[in-house]
Design brief:
Blueprint lengths: L1 H40 L10 H14 L1 H26 L1 H9 L1 H6 L5 H30 L1 H9 L13 H4 L5 H20 L2 H22 L8 E6 L5 E6 L5 E5 L7 E8 L13 H4 L2 H9 L4 E7 L4 H29 L3
Antiparallel strand pairs: 1-5, 2-3, 4-5
Helix pairs in contact: 1-2, 1-3, 1-6, 1-7, 2-7, 3-6, 3-9, 3-10, 4-9, 4-10, 6-9, 6-13, 9-10, 9-13
């Protein structure tokens, strides 16, 4: 049965191996160049001095200014989100539907292969290959982009759109999380195929559900895996990065957050009672310049409240999320096992 499964799956496996080999060559060249730039930037030898943040910002600016590095950086992120979806669509969804549509499913069961062995071998072999593919791709990208991630965790000044690895955009494209995504996408595709029994509709359903989960998860679930830290500090007029005023004296104050490497969830300016500050705007803000307005706001005894996940929680969050998605994959696999063993005919 293992040999038969490999014969049926070998085309997809060789395509995946070729794609991984091409990615390995590209990321190896890019990673070595980035490591050289990082070493010559002086970040590695600053030893915690005050200029480390500025050196990191300068390095990120240099990387962002290079079209090649920035393009590969963005493509690597996109690739790690697309790869699990492809696994679910082209590996998971056809696994059972192809057998149903070709009529080979009953032929296999009428031989010495039982339903139990048939689905167990297919789920185990292809599922492990899916997880290995996601893990290898993530390992290569994480290594190649590690100089950027280390610099982003230290940068303090204004910089380009190169974010900390704990932020939602990068979190799913680093570490061990893609292993969980690949396992879940594969099991989701198999489940869709078992329920729908048609390849193309199962592919469409897999893609729709997987995209929905990937969009909703960082907003609705991940922030609650570990209770965020809440920081309350005195309002600093020098941290104002935006002001807006409306009719009736209402105003909104936007302040910068100095939490290098953290994932900021909320950032509010509150009054003495702890309510979000919305005005009324001081008279100085309607008739004078920005510095005068900032001084007037500083005299209102406002505070800045920030909730965030610190950079130190990156690996615990990775572990929790990967474990949850692998557990979901096992639940879906168990359902498929039960459905085929008891219901599918």
């Amino acid at each position: 049965m293992i040999w038969l499964t490999w014969r049926q799956f070998r085309t997809q496996a060789w395509v995946a191996a070729g794609a991984l080999a091409a990615a390995a060559i590209l990321l190896a060249v890019t990673g070595l160049h980035l490591a050289h730039l990082y070493d010559t930037s002086g970040i590695g030898t600053c030893h915690g001095h005050g200029d480390c943040g500025q050196l990191a910002s300068n390095f990120l600016t240099q990387v962002a200014a290079s079209n090649l590095y920035h393009t590969i950086y963005l493509l690597s992120i996109a690739g790690l989100y697309v790869a699990p979806a492809i696994i679910g669509i082209f590996w998971g969804a056809p696994l059972v539907t192809r057998e149903i549509e070709n009529g080979t499913l009953r032929l296999a069961w009428n031989q010495s292969v039982t339903r139990t062995r048939w689905i167990a071998v297919k789920l185990s072999l292809v599922g492990l290959l899916a997880m290995a593919t996601g893990g290898l791709l993530s390992l290569m990208v994480t290594w190649s982009d590690s100089p950027i991630d280390r610099a982003a965790a230290m940068a303090t000044g204004p910089g380009p759109a190169l974010l900390s690895r704990i932020t939602p955009v990068l979190f799913g494209a680093r570490g061990i999380a893609p292993i969980g995504y690949a396992a879940f996408a594969f099991a989701l595709g198999v489940t869709a195929g078992v329920l729908i029994r048609r390849t193309v509709p199962a592919m469409a359903a897999t893609l729709a559900v997987f995209i929905t989960v990937q969009i909703a998860w960082p907003m609705l679930v991940r922030p609650h895996l570990i209770a965020p830290v809440r920081s309350i500090t005195a309002f600093d007029a020098g941290s104002i990065i935006g002001l807006s005023m409306q009719n009736g004296g209402q105003m909104t104050v936007l302040t910068a957050v100095s939490k290098p490497g953290a994932w900021v969830l909320t950032n509010q300016v509150v009054d003495a009672a702890g309510h979000p500050f919305t005005g009324p705007a001081p008279q100085a803000c309607t008739t004078n310049s920005f510095p005068v307005c900032a001084d007037a706001l500083a005299r209102l005894h406002l505070r800045q409240v920030v909730t965030y996940e610190p950079a130190s929680r990156y690996w615990p969050l990775q572990g929790y999320e990967t474990g949850i998605f692998v557990a979901l994959a096992l639940v879906l696999a168990a359902f498929c096992y039960w459905r085929i063993r008891r219901r599918l005919s």
